[in-house]
Every structure is written in structure tokens, then in C-alpha cells.
């Protein structure tokens, strides 16, 4: 393979995403972070957990923390389907679940079709957004889940000081 072929492969790289709905909006995460999708099940509440951490579940003998992204991103509840499933993801070697309203599909998007988040969106959720892509006549917000854990770690360090 010569250098021209390598450049072509890099220019045409695709991102595979698992897409899901939270409220009325579509979101996507890198398929490499998603381990499995399960039905909503009973969540055990953990005292003094942050508001967006719903609690934990027992998944085949493993205790998995469950995060509600709607609470984390301060999104309003929708009137449609609510909390129908959980995507088990692996972020920095840690398994955790994120609550979703519904799963959509797996899509492949060219990197060139992903636009950076506009700088005017500097609120809490900005650092969790990898970019925005157009998918069928809708916009798909691509999440950067690794930032979710990094902020949790920063908050814990601040509390310990």
C-alpha cells in the first residue's frame, strides 16, 4: 500500500454510532463504547449519590452504576416513551449504564459530516458533545462519554479538598 492509498483511507474514515433517543432528540455514541442494550430494570438507589446517578443494578453478578443523561444534561422529560432501556457502556475501563428512552439504530457517518459544537454552546453539556451530524433530516448529537467520568472525578477531588 503506498502513501496515496493511506491518505484516501484516512480521509474517508467512518464513525460507527449507536443512536438513541432522549426526549425528542437523537443522540449517538461510538459503537466501541457500547457493550450491550438491556431493558429497564429495577435500580437500587445509593444514598448521597449525585442527582444524575440513579443508582446501581446487578448485571450477571456485576454491580453497574446507572446514569440518567437527561438529569445530567438538564433535559426536560418528554410525553412519549420514557426510560425504556439502558445502554451498558465502557468508559476508561469502567462499565456503567446510561438510561435511554428508546434505541434507534446503528449508523455509519463520515467524519467529514460531523461538525464541531458551536462555541456559543458553553453550558454544562458542551464538554460532553463530540459534534453534531445530519442524519436523515434530523440532527444527531454525538456524545463524548469519556468526559462524563472525568468531570465526576474532578468533582470528587474538589469535595475532598
What does this 3D model show about the protein?
With 161 residues, the protein is α+β, with helices and mostly antiparallel strands. It has a single domain, classed as CheA-289, Domain 4 (OB fold (Dihydrolipoamide Acetyltransferase, E2P)). 17% of the residues lie in helices and 45% in strands. The protein is built from three helices and eleven strands; from the N terminus they run αβββββαββββββα. The strands form two sheets. Strands 8-1-2-11-10-9 form a six-stranded mixed sheet, with no helix packed on it. The longest helix is centred in the last third of the chain and has 15 residues, at 146-160. The radius of gyration is 17 Å and the shape is globular.
Task: List the defining traits of the structure above.
single chain; about 160 residues; alpha+beta; OB fold (Dihydrolipoamide Acetyltransferase, E2P); six-stranded mixed beta sheet; about 15% helix; disordered N terminus
Amino acid at each position: 500500500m503506498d502513501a496515496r492509498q493511506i491518505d484516501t483511507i484516512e480521509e474517508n474514515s467512518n464513525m460507527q454510532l449507536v443512536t438513541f433517543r432522549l426526549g425528542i432528540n437523537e443522540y449517538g455514541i461510538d459503537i466501541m463504547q457500547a457493550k450491550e442494550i438491556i431493558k429497564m430494570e429495577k435500580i437500587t438507589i445509593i444514598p448521597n449519590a449525585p442527582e444524575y446517578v440513579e443508582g446501581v443494578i446487578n448485571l450477571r453478578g456485576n454491580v453497574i452504576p446507572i446514569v440518567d443523561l437527561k438529569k445530567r444534561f438538564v433535559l426536560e422529560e418528554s410525553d412519549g416513551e420514557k426510560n425504556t432501556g439502558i445502554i451498558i457502556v465502557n468508559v476508561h475501563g469502567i462499565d456503567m449504564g446510561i438510561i435511554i428512552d428508546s434505541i434507534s439504530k446503528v449508523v455509519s457517518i463520515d467524519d467529514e459530516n460531523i461538525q464541531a459544537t458551536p462555541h456559543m454552546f458553553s453550558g454544562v453539556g458542551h464538554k460532553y458533545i463530540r459534534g453534531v451530524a445530519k442524519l436523515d433530516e434530523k440532527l444527531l448529537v454525538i456524545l463524548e462519554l469519556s468526559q462524563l467520568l472525568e468531570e465526576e472525578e474532578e468533582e470528587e477531588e474538589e469535595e475532598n479538598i
